[in-house]
Design a protein that fits this description.
The protein is about 70% helix and about 0% strand. With about 200 residues, the chain is mainly alpha-helical. Strand 1 (about 5) and strand 2 (about 5-10) form a beta hairpin. The radius of gyration is 19 Å and the shape is elongated.
């Protein structure tokens, strides 16, 4: 990307947001400097602030884009097959695969919540939006499994979905604290045992 006096001739907002996401994801909000953002996005300081207003405004847009991209990915996984159980297991297995990649950085929204949720309503907002959206799709998957007699349970759909959601976020946190793939895979089996 060419630059002239700190102002690129042209740039893609999506590309800039994706570059900013990488920096925020790697370093967190507080440790990420304007210099880091300029170096990664290719924008000069003036262009960066002209385009987004402030570091925090850029962070807000980065969180929004992160949510939109990954919620679509997760929903697609939950719709991959005609089997509700398989789709639920696939999402957990995807989380394990993502968390144990060589380049793994965990979930940006979980990382942001751990770092900053008490002091930043934007982090709390996008974390809640993401969790609510994911839970609503999980409910539909479980209900489809019950309707097709694939899932049998005396527990309500709402409680099953909430338990699964907690397990999904729990395994992602566990993968960060106990980086052992065999433990993660065994945990997936334990979670799926709740869907006889």
């Amino acid at each position: 990307m060419k630059k002239h006096s700190g102002r690129p001739l042209e740039y893609s907002k999506v590309d800039v947001l994706d570059a900013a996401i990488d920096v925020f994801w790697e370093k967190g909000y507080k440790a990420c400097s304007t210099v880091d953002l300029c170096n990664r996005t290719g924008l000069g300081r003036g262009s960066l602030y002209n385009a987004f207003g402030s570091k925090h405004k850029l962070y807000e847009e980065a969180l929004k884009r992160y949510h939109e991209f990954w919620i679509e990915t997760q929903i697609n996984i939950l719709k991959q097959t005609n089997s509700a159980k398989q789709n639920l297991e696939n999402l957990l297995s995807w989380a394990v695969e993502e968390d144990f990649k060589e380049s793994a950085k965990g979930c940006m929204l979980i990382n942001a919540s751990m770092e900053y949720w008490k002091n930043d309503p934007t982090v709390a907002y996008w974390s809640r939006i993401h969790a609510n959206h994911l839970e609503s799709v999980i409910k539909k998957v479980i209900q489809n499994g019950i309707d097709s007699n694939e899932i049998s349970s005396n527990i309500s759909v709402d409680d099953l979905a909430r338990n699964y959601l907690c397990s999904f976020y729990g395994i992602r946190a566990l993968n960060a604290f106990i980086p052992d793939i065999e433990t993660a895979q065994d945990t997936v089996k334990s979670i799926m045992a709740n869907f006889p």
